[in-house]
Amino acid sequence: MALAQGDTAVYPKTGTIGRVVRILDMDGKTWAELDSTGLLYDINSLEPSAATIAEENGKPTSMKEPKRKKKGGKIAGEKGVEDMKDEGSLDSSAGICGAG
Question: Whose CB has fewer CB within 10 Å in the chain, the N or C terminal residue?
């Protein structure tokens, strides 16, 4: 299925979901801009979302993001300030720049 403007798409590498706001050809590739990030994605790396597939099959859908499970009052996978530890200050005593 080819994605079109207005379709909902998923970038499977990160799980980013968004509606395609425009499609453009640049440097021999086709790119799609998602409204959720404002970024361009290679259209071949995007997949149609369940909402787009359902719309094509004539089923009503709602455009809700999938819920992430909360654990202890926080969204799973997110770190709060209390979870981070101070590892001291940065040692900048070396006089090298690392440009070997």
Answer: C
What digits encode the pLDDT tens for the residues 59-77? Answer: 655 545 444 455 555 555 5
Torsion angles phi and psi, residue 97, rounded to 5: -105, -10
Question: Looking at this protein, which amino acid is placed at residue 63?
Answer: M
Overall pTM surpassing 0.85 (yes/no): no
Domain boundaries, the chain: 1-18+29-64
Q: Nearest CA to 5 among 18, 15, 13?
A: 18
Task: For residues 87 and 75, give the distance between their C-alpha atoms in angstroms, rounded to a whole number.
Answer: 25
- Which residues are CB-contacts of 36 (< 8 A; sequence separation ≥ 6)? 16, 17, 18, 19
Residues of the chain with pLDDT > 70, as a percent, come to: 51
Please state, in angstroms and rounded to a whole number, the distance separating the CA atoms of residues 5 and 60: 19
